[in-house]
């Protein structure tokens, strides 16, 4: 994450961000306390069930909103065979939270992208409202924990694509007020191959001020590194595995994995055959590698269910997480590291975003910059 730096605009007093801490306080960075919850003599699957009961999965990417948009009727409470995700399978898989993707097909661009993203946000809220016994809308770490403690799955809106902003910081603020909590820095002129433009840097600062989390999946190395230099909050990669094991363009090389971990970020490994391989063992290989390179605090899970992609054997829907955790336990993962993987690391990133936002909001007014001002 960035060192302290001055703001871009004269509307912000020189040096007013210099009081921001260079690092998060211990209570923000520290993982949740871990107490062993299972008997080591149990089978790996029974141990996995016990760990997940206390530390459920925070799923980094669900395509459910777009999938439901095309169904004439659905009921997630009783079960829905037309999708990979419903409430019975979320409960069976011990999913405690999921990020509901607002990404759009590539053909939806410009003003259409802004409106379509708002429709997706509205759909997410509608789905949650229609299933109050199983789902609850959440916007931060505390609300996610409250939902889990009440037996509901926390649904956090996002990520959305950068095209949803329409190159407007005002639209970013409006989407945040509507509930958006994650934005992917790809697909915009200000976040391309060379990296962030001056306007792109201002987008990152405004995201920090609002508490919108940065998603760098699919971003160029230049965008990665400039984001690390500018942002004071940790970033996610919601759908990235290890390129050293599988040369998919969305997977991360080891140098970026190491930089992401060092910056307090989180690589959320997708459960897709294309990115991680055809078996549960292949996914576990990626998790082993990311943990080794980025650290135990730098790895998470991303089901990527209902995105139209094929999934590895034994991981075909949202109920299958215990099988993956059992494989990790067979490999010698400590239960404390599993708890970070499934729940603790996402909670840390959510807390970091909220801490940064509180600090920024006392020192920085909403930005009035435009892309024409900075990149024109």
From TrEMBL:
Protein name as annotated: Microsomal dipeptidase-like Zn-dependent dipeptidase
A Pfam family: Peptidase_M19
Region (Disordered): 1-40
Stretches with biased composition (Basic and acidic residues): 1-10
Gene3D superfamilies linked to this entry: Metal-dependent hydrolases (3.20.20.140)
